[in-house]
Amino acid sequence: MRLALVALLLLAAAAAPAAAAPTVISGADPEAYVLDLTYDASGAGTLSGSERIEFVNRGPAALDRVWLRLWANGPDRCRPRHVDVRIEAPAQAGAERVRCSAREVRLAAPVAPGASAAVSLTFSVRGRRPNDRFGHARGVALLGNVVPVLAVEDDRGLRLPPYSAIGETFYSLSARWKATLRLPARLRAATTGAVVSDRVRGAQRTVRVATAQARDFALAIGRLGVTGTRVDGVRIRVFTNGGPRVVRGASRDARRAVTTFGRRYGRYGSSELDVVVVPFKFGGMEYPELIFAYPSRVAIVHEIAHQWWYGLVGDDQSREPWLDESFATYSHEWLNPSVNICQPDRPYSLVNPKWRRIPLDSSMALFDRLPEPAIGDVIYAAGSCVLQRLERDLGRARMTAFFRLLQTRFRFGVMRTSDVLDAIREVAPGFDVAAWTRLAHLSN
Question: Considering the entire predicted model, what is its pTM?
Answer without folding.
Answer: 0.95
